[in-house]
Amino acid sequence: MDVDIGNALASVASPGVSRESLERLDEQVADAHERIEDGMADGEHGYEALNLPRRTDPDEIRRTVEPVADAEALLTVGIGGSALGAATITNALADDSETEAVSLDNIDPEWVSNHLDRLPLEDTAINVVSRSGTTAETLANFLTVREAFEDAGVDWTERTIVTTGESGPLRDLSDRHDLPSLKVPNGVPGRFSALSAVGMVAAAVCGHDLEALLEGAAAEAETLSGSLFDCPAYAYGATSYALDARGAGMNAMVPYAESLETYSEWFAQLWAESLGKDDLGQTPLRALGVTDQHSQLQLYRAGPRDKVVTFVTPRETDDRAIPDTEVDDLAYLGDATLGELLDAEFEATEASLAAAGRPNVRIELERVDEYELGGLLYGMEAACVLAGELYGVNTFEQPAVEWAKKATRGLLGGGEFEEADAVAEKTELRVER
Ligand SMILES: O=P(O)(O)OC[C@H]1O[C@H](O)[C@H](O)[C@@H](O)[C@@H]1O
């Protein structure tokens, strides 16, 4: 990926960061990079994720999914970091696959039932993913899916691939039924695991090029260096951090490609869960170009000066001509293609924010394919790790989320958790009809 931070400079935007401030910040980037390199070399928790392009074995993943390769549908059962990487990859590349990929990451009963009633279960693969193997939503959905397969007379054990940690309830279940399984690599938190089996099993079932995903990521890894001016990922992480310190406490991720809509969800988890600690962190917002030009852009351009907008734009896309019309005022459209209109709208929106002095950053990809996607996922992970070093937070933990997980289990009688007591202590001020 290439990153253009010109519209985040103080000469353009407020809040903005001056070139001099970036040069001073670059000294901290150099220190942070040393820390990151050491962490990677030692395989430390979290930093190990940045080694995945060299560690993930595509052959092992392909071999494991062999029984369900090219299924008509794929049901990924997981949540958070155990679902969003797979969904980002399969949704971005959906046009190149015959397999319909569905991510069962919510437990809304109507929604779950609709999918199970609709999908051809006899030709559906189940990809169940949980690092801990204990996440209530994932296990509840898996049990539900299993039963639906049994009710339809389909042997779920023939159609299930498990990806989980070395031990835990899901590992036990997998062993008991002798299911094909893969391991979530040690030291890799869920939201940093898209380039391991966690995200790649889905890619493999859908027939995507695993090597290209990893090569794209490896090429991005090659750019990691001691200066933000030489490394797109660090340029992004450092600029976001600097803008946040100057008041841009929100970061709106706006891809100009429908296929990247889920990528914004993945980014939101990465940024929020990694950096939202110790009263620090930048709030990720999700939007989509051009759709949200006609809803959120008003706020981004004229609301509080508390945001940076991040555009993601592929340079090349498939295109489609806009047909001529008999109406003179619309003749200009007939001379263009949908792709040209999309590009023009992107450039106009970017310029409109800059003209209003609103900071924005452009991330360019060649196109949306495996190689570029691998680079984007890796690049944003590295950006996040760098930002975590600059904030001085523990990027790789998520105690606030764990708190609610424990409270839920306590409420359901899944163990003694004092967190559950807080539910009964809720303050009420009801206004009833
Ligand atoms: O992979 P699992 O252990 O099932 O966890 C799934 C998700 O659970 C929690 O919400 C964590 O905060 C996420 O970081 C994690 O990705």
UniProtKB/TrEMBL annotation:
Region (Disordered): 38-58
Pathway: Carbohydrate biosynthesis; gluconeogenesis; Carbohydrate degradation; glycolysis; D-glyceraldehyde 3-phosphate and glycerone phosphate from D-glucose: step 2/4
GO cellular component terms given for this protein: cytosol
Compartmental location: Cytoplasm
Keyword list, A-Z: Cytoplasm, Gluconeogenesis, Glycolysis, Isomerase
InterPro entries xref list: G6P_Isomerase (IPR001672), Phosphoglucose_isomerase_CS (IPR018189), SIS_dom_sf (IPR046348), SIS_PGI_1 (IPR035476)
Keyword Membrane: no
Catalytic activities: alpha-D-glucose 6-phosphate = beta-D-fructose 6-phosphate
UniProt-recorded Gene Ontology molecular function terms: carbohydrate derivative binding; glucose-6-phosphate isomerase activity; monosaccharide binding
The protein's Enzyme Commission number: 5.3.1.9
Xref: CDD domains: SIS_PGI_1 (cd05015)
GO annotation, biological process: gluconeogenesis; glucose 6-phosphate metabolic process; glycolytic process
Signal peptide: none
Enzyme class name: isomerase
Described purpose of this protein according to its UniProt entry: Catalyzes the reversible isomerization of glucose-6-phosphate to fructose-6-phosphate.
PANTHER family in the cross-refs: GLUCOSE-6-PHOSPHATE ISOMERASE (PTHR11469:SF1)
Similarity-based family: Belongs to the GPI family.
Listed name of the protein: Probable glucose-6-phosphate isomerase
